[in-house]
Structures are given as C-alpha cells and as structure tokens.
Design goal:
Strand 1 (122-127) and strand 2 (130-135) form a beta hairpin. The protein has five helices and three strands. The protein folds into two domains: 7-48 and 121-146, Distorted Sandwich (Calcium-transporting ATPase, cytoplasmic transduction domain A), CATH 2.70.150.10; 55-118, no CATH class. Helix 3 (55-61) packs across helix 5 (84-118) and helix 4 packs antiparallel against helix 5 (84-118). Strands 2-1-3 form a three-stranded antiparallel β-sheet, with no helix packed on it. The protein has helices at residues 16-22, 33-43, 55-61, 66-80, 84-118, and strands at 122-127, 130-135, 144-146. By secondary structure, it is mainly α. Keywords: Membrane, Transmembrane, Transmembrane helix.
Length: 176
C-alpha cells in the first residue's frame, strides 16, 4: 500500500519492528482515526481506478467491425448510384443499431457497477485501539488488520503476529 519511489522504501524486506517504527504505528492500538484520515488524504484510497470510456467513443465503436463496414459500404454504394431511399434507410438502421448497442452496454455497465458495489471487500482494522469493520478502500499504510481463515486479504500487508493454520477436527472418519 505504501507508494514505492525508490529501493530504500522496500518495506517487504525490512524487519517488522522497523516497518512499524517507520510507519509510526503501535501494533497494540493501531492508527488514530485522525491519522488514518490524514494518510487517506496523502496516499489516496486503496483501490484500482478503472478508466471509463467516454460515451461518444462507445457510440462510435458501434460503427466499426466487419459487419458494420459491409453495411456502411452498402450505404455508400447506394448513395453513389443514386438510390437515396436505400441510403437513408440503411443509415437510419445503422444509427438505430448503434443506439440499441449503446443502451445495452449502459445496462450491462450499471449492473456490473451494482455488483462491484455489493461485493466490495471489507477489512477488520484497528483504529484507536479497537477493531472496526471498514471498506477495504479506506485502508492506509500503517493500518493493523485482523485476517481470519478464508477471508480475502484486502491489501498488501505484512504479518506481525498470528496463529498458523489451525485445523478443527469437527468430524472424525473411521475406516472399516
């Protein structure tokens, strides 16, 4: 999560205590809410931002491709030979098709955005000495995060303590 600008800042190779000291964080209390807010402003959210294509570019992309080129060629040939009725009808159908494709794309994008919002990862983070669940995008360098078995790791992290794999023997199998 820390933006690496040079080899001096390679925190994965440093001793855990040195990293905690460098990040000015106490592993027993975590960051204060104010310090976390300051770091969020300094480093930005823990998220990958996707570049959205402009609407006009999405619209124009509907006029590219082999089938679209054949239909456009038919419209041009109709105009060249003077069949203006055919030219206008083909042009209207091309525009109608592009509008339908754009509408379908917007519906799919909206559904995907809603799905991403519903599946947004959370993290159990220590702030002001207490664990609280926050959006993973609000994690900042120096946060102390509790990870449980089967949970998605919400950011690049260093393990500072914990139990290794624990296997509960809920059911015992016997052979005949």
């Amino acid at each position: 999560m820390v933006k690496q600008t040079d080899s001096k800042n390679d925190l994965e190779k440093e001793d855990v205590q040195k990293v905690l000291t460098d990040l000015n964080v106490d592993p027993k209390t975590g960051l204060s809410m104010q310090e976390a807010k300051n770091r969020l402003g300094k480093y930005g959210p823990n998220a990958i931002t996707a570049k959205e294509e402009p609407l006009w570019l999405k619209f124009l992309k509907n006029f590219t491709g082999p089938i679209a080129y054949m239909i456009e060629a038919a419209a041009i040939v109709s105009a060249i030979i003077g069949h203006w009725d055919d030219f206008v009808i083909i042009l209207i159908l091309l525009l109608f098709n592009a509008c339908i494709e754009l509408w379908q794309d917007r519906k799919a994008s909206n559904a995907l955005s809603a799905l991403k919002k519903g599946l947004a990862p959370t993290a159990n983070v220590m702030r002001d000495g207490k664990f609280a669940t926050i959006q993973a995008s609000k994690l900042v360098p120096g946060d102390i995060v509790k990870i449980c078995l089967g949970q998605i790791v919400p950011a690049d992290m260093r393990f500072i303590s914990g139990d290794y794999a624990f296997i509960g023997q809920a059911a015992k199998f016997t052979g005949n």
